[in-house]
Write a structure and sequence with these properties.
Layout: H1 3-10, E1 21-24, E2 27-30, E3 34-43, E4 48-58, E5 64-76, E6 80-89, E7 92-102, E8 106-117, E9 120-122
Antiparallel strand pairs: 1-2, 3-4, 4-5, 5-6, 6-7, 7-8, 8-9
Length: 126
């Protein structure tokens, strides 16, 4: 007899408030939240890369949160790169990042992002 067959026999209907409750023998487990994240990076050329990422979080009340992010990065031959990113979902944002290697073990990194909040936008500064 499998786990699922025993669960069906032992289920008494008292857990209707929590449909994801799992009862097995005397022990009971309850799934309170679930979080999933996945990404894929696609090299387009030797210098260009595209990345898709998504995440999803389910909460106890049955509603979920999540977002999808698309990133494009171009690497320049002179030890530098430029990256653009767009995020949609619960948080909507656009950002641009850049990196440049300077002589004598120094570098410059810059990041500008805009987060859109209910018909307005905010540009955070460091």
């Amino acid at each position: 007899m499998s786990l699922w067959e025993e669960r069906e026999e032992e289920y008494d209907g008292e857990d209707d408030e929590n449909p994801v409750g799992i009862t097995y023998g005397e022990e009971k487990g309850v799934l309170q939240s679930l979080e999933v994240a996945q990404s894929i990076e696609v090299p387009l050329t030797a210098n260009d890369t595209l990345e898709y990422a998504c995440n999803m979080k389910s909460t106890v009340d049955g509603r979920g949160e999540g977002s999808v992010t698309t990133t494009f990065r171009h690497t320049f031959p002179s030890s530098s790169w430029l990256q653009g990113e767009a995020q949609f979902g619960d948080a909507t944002a656009l950002s641009v990042k850049g990196f440049r290697q300077l002589p004598s073990a120094c570098f410059v990194f810059s990041h500008l992002s805009m987060h859109f909040l209910q018909d307005t936008f905010v540009v955070p500064t460091p």
